[in-house]
User: Which sequence fits this backbone?
């Protein structure tokens, strides 16, 4: 099947591109043209984008070139082509969440991260496909059709940030932003063989990120290497007065951490997160930990039994918050409206037509979990589990600097392979705990598993522990080569 | 319904009062909090609940809420927000951010002017909804041909004060709302305007056999837009419930709508149809934990409350016991925060009765301007009236023009009067002069009266014969001849003197 053979490859990284543009080795316009050509060549097979901003991007690139010609530094991301997951609001540019509900909705404002990227000189190339409202692990739940994995077009790219992961893996852009509520950056990064980072909850402003589950959502980068991801985190992170849950702590020095090595670093392998992984993933993962130990890390196993309740707790808390966050799509003010006899039937018709089956399933789950009489048994209990998990992590981090696991229990799977929702939910088994605890975690590609598809290693760290996370992540990246 | 029908029954009333806080901006965004602007002009992504927007709490609103709590003798506690989920077109996010299990203020009390204390269960912060206008015959969402929504009010900060079911008559409920209103104004938390919806009242009403300790099933009455309506709604509802019980029926717990036109309440929805609000903690906001210093500052910075101010003003005016007209005037003046005006006039030695009357009758009707009228200017006006330089009628006209001038000056400030706390001096003598008001001496008046009597001999005869009604004819004629400068009382006494002289 030649059509499924890999034909597109990641392009040069963020930092290399910015340097090339700043030193006038390559103009921002030329960088962008390369990207747009690659998109023109492969996008119809991959479908990473919901929207490619051809003209706006060209204009922006030439502005960057003008600045450089006038001797003005456009910033650390000078001329770097970036893609945005389509749940990140862009002013005057459609932001759909890959849902019919918002198919024609155009935000009047920019998300904080968009403004920060633009201020740093980035060129926004397009909006990437995703599972509808970020609910899913394969990007099959997009109302606009699935995205294909650039590593092998017969396989899903993971999700929900599948379009972002694919856009980087296919070399369409140097970097993409995704959002991660239960693994939605790390799992597609793992399946597509790129680096994906979920920062500490509150480190990157959520202002302008269309909410799925507010207490779990976090924006982060998908990049071709660990250092680039560190740089992007520094650019998009930091305190934002528009987000009340934003952390007022400096978010810098991450790039420096990448060069520190792992000598003496205590690495814990979480047995509960390793056990569910398939043999090929386990084999790649073990190779990684062996190599880490060989370069001086103190690798040991740790059991955190509380984590086995994570998935259940997550699938109560996330749908509960989603049922409330998605209630605003009622046809009254914006987005889809399907006419009805009266207000109630209009709302009913709109929501019936506008949401796909997975979104409806989670709204139903969440509505049930919050209902009077059930609240304490479901939502209340799930919050108690969340506290237990956070405390258990706290104890683990007394003995370890970072914790490791495979990011995804398997390599990329085929389209339609997971028909049972619970099978699909299990894809997030290793990633969910970090969201529940609000901790940072990243996925770094390490070797290949079944069908020559990439395996990702997840590095987890305590709250605000990004420095040590990048420190270990960078070494894993080095060991993989 | 006569009060006789309450014989043998006790009324139990608890009130929920929503007060719009008088902040410059909304509760969770920077949009102006102002009433009466063109629809959907004071809106932004946050208060429209656009996808991706997030709330940021207005600290001024927290400050005002804490002031209300302090004034109502509440515990001020760490608090958090919950989402109250339900669908309605004027709710942009399809949930209201409110406080649920951890309100900022709880367990306080309010003392009525009668001395009775009404318990305050809680006074919590929440956001207001937009405003829907239903087009069509019903005027309600059912059967509307279309509906228009104005989101200017969406996200305006509210404090909802929930009383204990401690009131036992419509009058007590009205007294409670009057006193709460005066306290809210005194705190600087609200302008207290019920007619603009700054203050909205829901009444929980139940009845029980006199002497019974058990509470009856309650009904919640909505759409009560004035004190008068509150009294009517409670009286109607109590009589309805008693009639049901007397006929052997039972009261269904339900929400009832008060119809201003008919004075009746009707069922809106029963308990069974009521929403399951699916409350859960608002994940986009953090806990408010005011420290002791903040709370202490609020408590010690609280201005004098209405009860204290009424006592002061009453004693200075020599007002009598509760119920006398002047004590009502004292309450009115204090409730509108105009006591400074009267006290200023009293300090200048003005007649307390006149000062109180002008303030309670005329100034209160134009409270926005009156709050910015310099007490010295008011005092000069009262003095002009009390020494007889102008008549009461003229005095009212002059005061009206003085307040016009204040309005004009406020306008010149650019309409942003919300934060302006200063006074404007206005010269009452200049206004009186410009209108040609000057004191008419008795000789001039007597000469005018002579002329009128000569032209109307028949009427004068009737007056002499003891026809009291015809006296008003002469007062009217005198007013006409003097272009309103004659004082009615002076005319009557001149007429009496003329009659007695002839007699």
Assistant:
């Amino acid at each position: 099947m030649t059509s499924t053979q890999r034909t597109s490859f990641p392009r040069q990284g963020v930092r290399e591109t910015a340097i090339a543009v700043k030193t006038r080795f390559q103009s921002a316009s030329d960088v962008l043209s390369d990207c747009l050509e690659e998109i023109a060549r492969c996008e119809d097979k991959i479908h990473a984008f919901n929207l490619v901003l051809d003209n706006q991007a060209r204009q922006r690139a030439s502005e960057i070139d003008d600045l450089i010609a006038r001797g003005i530094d456009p910033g650390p991301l000078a001329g770097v082509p970036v893609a945005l997951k389509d749940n990140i609001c862009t002013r005057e540019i459609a932001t759909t969440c890959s849902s019919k509900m918002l198919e024609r909705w155009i935000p009047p404002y920019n998300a904080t991260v968009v403004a920060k990227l633009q201020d740093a000189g980035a060129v926004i190339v397009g909006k990437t496909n995703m599972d509808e409202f970020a609910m899913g692990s394969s990007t099959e739940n997009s109302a606009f059709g699935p995205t294909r994995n650039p590593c092998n077009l017969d396989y899903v790219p993971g999700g929900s940030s599948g379009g972002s992961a694919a856009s980087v893996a296919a070399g369409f852009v140097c970097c993409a932003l995704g959002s991660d509520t239960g693994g939605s950056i790390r799992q597609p990064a793992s399946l597509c063989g790129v680096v994906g980072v979920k920062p500490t909850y509150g480190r990157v402003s959520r202002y302008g990120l269309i909410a799925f589950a507010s207490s779990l959502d976090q924006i982060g980068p998908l990049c071709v290497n660990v250092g680039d991801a560190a740089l992007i985190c520094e650019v998009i992170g930091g305190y934002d007065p528009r987000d009340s849950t934003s952390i007022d702590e400096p978010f810098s020095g991450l790039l420096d951490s990448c060069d520190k090595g792992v000598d003496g670093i205590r690495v814990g392998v979480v047995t509960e997160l390793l056990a569910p992984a398939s043999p090929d993933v386990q084999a790649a993962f073990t190779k990684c930990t062996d190599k880490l130990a060989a370069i001086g890390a103190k690798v040991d196993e740790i059991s955190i039994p509380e984590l086995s309740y994570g998935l259940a707790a997550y699938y109560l808390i996330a749908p509960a918050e989603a049922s409330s966050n998605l209630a605003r799509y009622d046809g009254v003010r914006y987005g889809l409206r399907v006419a009805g006899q009266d207000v109630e039937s209009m709302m009913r018709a709109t929501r019936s037509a506008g949401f796909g089956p997975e979104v409806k399933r989670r709204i139903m789950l969440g509505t049930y979990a919050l209902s009077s009489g059930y609240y304490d048994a479901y939502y209340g209990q799930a919050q108690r589990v969340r506290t237990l998990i956070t405390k258990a992590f706290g104890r683990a981090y007394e003995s370890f600097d970072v914790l490791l696991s495979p990011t995804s229990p398997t390599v990329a799977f085929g389209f339609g392979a997971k028909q049972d929702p619970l099978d699909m939910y299990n894809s997030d088994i290793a990633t969910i705990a970090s969201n529940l605890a609000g901790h940072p975690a990243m996925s770094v590609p390490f070797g290949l598993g079944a069908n020559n598809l990439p395996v990702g290693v997840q590095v987890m760290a305590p709250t605000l522990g990004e420095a040590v996370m990048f420190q270990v992540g960078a070494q894993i990246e080095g060991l993989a080569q | 319904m006569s009060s006789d029908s309450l014989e043998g029954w006790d009324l139990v009333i608890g009130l929920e009062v929503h007060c719009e806080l008088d902040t410059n901006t909304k509760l969770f965004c920077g949009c102006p909090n102002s009433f009466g602007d063109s629809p959907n002009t004071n809106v932004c992504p946050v208060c429209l609940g656009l996808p991706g927007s997030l709330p940021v709490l207005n600290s001024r609103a927290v400050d005002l809420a804490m002031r209300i709590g302090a004034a109502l003798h509440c515990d001020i506690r760490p608090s958090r927000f919950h989402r109250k989920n339900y669908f309605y077109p004027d709710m942009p996010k399809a949930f209201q951010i409110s406080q649920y299990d951890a309100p900022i203020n709880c367990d306080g009390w309010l003392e009525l002017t009668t001395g009775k204390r009404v318990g305050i269960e809680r006074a919590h912060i929440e956001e207001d909804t937009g405003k829907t206008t239903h087009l069509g015959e019903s005027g309600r969402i059912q059967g509307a041909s279309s509906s228009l929504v104005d989101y200017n009010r969406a996200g305006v900060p509210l404090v909802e004060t929930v009383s204990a079911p401690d009131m036992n008559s419509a009058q007590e409920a009205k007294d409670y709302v009057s006193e709460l209103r005066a306290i809210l104004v005194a705190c600087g938390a609200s302008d207290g305007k019920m007619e603009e919806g700054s203050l909205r009242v829901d009444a929980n009403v139940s009845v029980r056999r006199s002497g019974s300790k058990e509470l009856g099933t309650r009904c919640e009455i909505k759409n009560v837009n004035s004190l008068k309506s509150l009294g009517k709604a409670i009286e109607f509802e109590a009589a309805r419930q008693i009639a049901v019980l007397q006929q052997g029926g039972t009261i269904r717990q339900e929400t009832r709508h008060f119809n201003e036109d008919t004075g009746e309440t009707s069922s809106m929805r029963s308990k069974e149809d009521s929403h399951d609000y699916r409350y859960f903690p608002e994940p986009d906001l953090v806990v408010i934990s005011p420290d002791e210093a903040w709370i202490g500052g609020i408590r010690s910075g609280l201005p004098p409350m209405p009860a204290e101010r009424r006592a002061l003003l009453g004693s200075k005016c020599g007002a009598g016991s509760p119920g006398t007209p002047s004590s009502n005037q004292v309450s009115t003046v204090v409730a509108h925060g105009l006591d400074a005006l009267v006290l200023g006039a009293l300090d200048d030695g003005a007649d307390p009765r006149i000062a109180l009357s002008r303030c309670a009758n005329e100034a209160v009707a134009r409270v926005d301007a009156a709050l910015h009228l310099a007490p010295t200017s008011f005092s000069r006006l009262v003095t002009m009236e009390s020494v007889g330089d102008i008549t009461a009628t003229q005095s009212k006209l002059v005061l009206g023009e003085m307040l016009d001038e204040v309005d004009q000056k406020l306008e010149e400030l650019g309409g942003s009067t919300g934060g302006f706390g200063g006074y404007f001096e206005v010269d009452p003598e200049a206004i009186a002069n410009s209108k040609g008001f000057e004191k008419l001496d008795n000789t001039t008046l007597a000469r005018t009266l002579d002329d009128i009597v000569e032209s109307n001999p028949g009427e004068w005869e009737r007056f002499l014969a003891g026809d009291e009604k015809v006296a008003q004819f002469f007062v009217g004629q005198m007013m006409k001849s003097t272009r309103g400068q004659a004082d009615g009382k002076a005319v009557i006494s001149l007429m009496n003197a003329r009659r007695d002289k002839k007699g």
Q: What stands out?
A: The two ends of chain A are 28 Å apart (CA to CA). Chain A touches chain B through 45 residues (CB under 8 Å).
